[in-house]
Amino acid sequence: MTDDRRTLLQRTGIAAVSGTLLYLSAPPFKIWPLCFVAALLLAYSVRGVSARRAFWLGLVGAFFYWIFAAPWLVGTITRFAGLSTAIAVVLFLLYCFGQSLMIAAQCALSAATRTILGASAAAALCALASERYIAAVFAWQYAAPLVEAPWIPQVADLVTVSGVSALLHGTATAVVSALEESRAGALTKSGKRALAVWLAMFVGSFVYGAVRTKQFSNADARPAVRVALLQPAVPPLVRWDESAANSILQKLHWQTGEALRERPDLIVWHEGAYPYVLPHQAGIDGLHGPPVWTVREAPPIVFGLMSAGQGATRYNGVFLRNEDATLSTPVAKRALVPFGESVPLASTLPWLAQIFSKSGGISPGTGTPLLRTRSGLLLGILICFEDTLAHAAADAADGALLVNLTNDGWFESPTALEEHLLMARWRSIELRRETVRAVNSGVSGRIDVLGRMAARGPVNTAMVLHVTARTWDTRTLAPHFARWGGFVASLAVIAALLERSRRALVARRAARGGSSEPTKSSEPAPASDDGAAK
Fold it and tell me: 327: helix, coil or strand?
């Protein structure tokens, strides 16, 4: 075995360990300090390698994370797609591969641009760009497990969770670069400077987080809203059985009646809870289908359903039933889940559409996801996995309270439910809004503005959970960063790639004697962390 192949094998092993540790930092283990170690090992494995090798190493690291984190998907596919276990395993492996492309692309882009941007800046910018724009079935941010950590998550109200990921990767790369230079016997001034800057930002995030934690720890003075969260635990196949619609609605009526005993200010049903189709427009409860509630006077009820637009258009919608039994203009889910609510390339690959024949056919919503009660309470509505996306939640920032309606019954695994909840908690930190979650099978509960679970119910259990939420009007920078941070980072990465190509072209021309410009190789001798060639 050659030294080069041996080195690649060693680095592949390190990348695999990195992914395994990242898995241990997330649910169900939640050993969050391992997230830092995972980032360091990933940075160590890709140091100084070509973009192609960096892609491979990033792919391996992420694949080892997903292979451990998502085995529940095999059971989901066999139960609900009606496929054999063998096909489900193949699809699961393809899913893990697809989910791993984000980190793989991040590492490859970082390797390709480090001589232009500097190693640490490249790692941070490529993390921002990749987490925003590299497609995945389910969104995932590298720093997500750190929501369990003290203080550092609170910086997300400035830069979102992806900004925390960028800080993590940038700092890890600076530390690894400094250690490598020290081991070589020459820690350069630029290396020292980069290490000092990134460590200062890293430590500063903890200090900032400590200050914000103190500011938001006492919420007793904030206006209170008593919310009843219905969790009927309807089995997913039963939910879409038309013959079961009446019994499902009866169960929701019974739970609503139980909720009214505690005199709530707001009642929330889960995503798709109402088992009939209503027109996607404002109206009157009971006019186009069985009533959501049988008594005219009742507190506002937020409920999810499948609504019908013009022609064959369908929406994953949410209505607000007002106190006088009128129905508000609905909002609809804007970020659809691939292979769950839409089938990418279905027209090009008919066999793919056949496999996922129970998916698709849902149109994305438009407009601002806000609903206002007659009392003036403005609710920011996040449907299902929209609470895992900072840019989707940014549009709900004007709401005084975030309301998430979800049906996670398809997954059944408690680990999958906890993974979803883990990412949802970041939205409360970013926007400094409390979130109430009504989830068919759990986890229903209340998340405070520090991202902590202030109340939660059990999973896979029918229940009504009463919580007292607090409304806030604090403004943060996170919504703006969610909209523009990844975009600006992508522009910087593209500019660096163009500059790299320009240098390579100049070098080729110089090698042929066709240019009098000073030559700069696209892959010069190892560069210091500030990007200057040594």
Answer: strand
Task: Give the dihedral sign, CA 158/153/381/258.
Answer: negative
Question: 53 to each of 102, 105, 109, 127, how far by Cα in Å?
Answer: 15, 11, 11, 17
Tokens of 418: 């906890």
Give the count of alpha carbons within 13 A of 50, CB side only: 5
Q: 417: pLDDT confidence band, cut at 50, 70 and 90?
A: very high
- Residue 338: predicted pLDDT: 72
Average pLDDT over every residue of 291-313: 91
Q: What is the mean pLDDT of the chain?
A: 91
Distance CA 458, CA 364 (A): 31
Query: What span, in angstroms and rounded, lies between the C-alpha atoms of 238 and 233?
Result: 10
Q: What are residue 372's DSSP bridge partners?
A: 378
Res 63 pLDDT > 80: yes
Count of Cβ atoms closer than 10 Å to residue 390 Cβ: 29
d(CA 504, CA 509): 9
Please tell me whether the overall predicted TM-score, pTM, comes out greater than 0.85 for this model.
yes
**DSSP secondary-structure letter at 40?**
H
Q: Report the C-alpha gap between 534 and 418 in whole angstroms.
A: 47
String of DSSP letters for 350-409 = HHHHHHTTTS--PPPP-S--EEE-TT--EEEEEEGGGGG-HHHHGGGTTSSEEEEEE--T
